[in-house]
């Protein structure tokens, strides 16, 4: 019989799976880890619009990693 913690982890994985599909459709270039971090930040009170702005600004930084700097800044 599955434990309650296992059920919660499975539900969290399913949510991230769905968010990853949406992210892919929107070409956000965020991986599962980045999406999980964004969800966690938002759940802890970070303004989603402010978070999106920070991500866009970081992608514009000349010292950003190649994967991030090549991502479209929407």
TrEMBL record:
Subcellular locations according to the entry: Cytoplasm, Cytoskeleton, Microtubule organizing center, Spindle pole body
Which cellular component terms (GO) are annotated to the entry?
A: gamma-tubulin ring complex; interphase microtubule organizing center; mitotic spindle pole body; spindle
Question: What's the protein here called?
Answer: Mitotic-spindle organizing protein 1
The record's listing under Pfam families reads: MOZART1
Keywords, sorted A to Z: Cytoplasm, Cytoskeleton
Q: Which GO terms describe its biological process?
A: gamma-tubulin complex localization; microtubule nucleation by interphase microtubule organizing center; mitotic spindle assembly
Question: What is its biological role?
Answer: Required for gamma-tubulin complex recruitment to the microtubule organizing center (MTOC).
Please indicate which superkingdom the organism of origin belongs to: Eukaryota
Quaternary structure, per UniProt, is: Part of the gamma-tubulin complex.
Instruction: Report the InterPro entries cross-referenced here.
Output: MZT1 (IPR022214)
The entry's family comment says:
Belongs to the MOZART1 family.
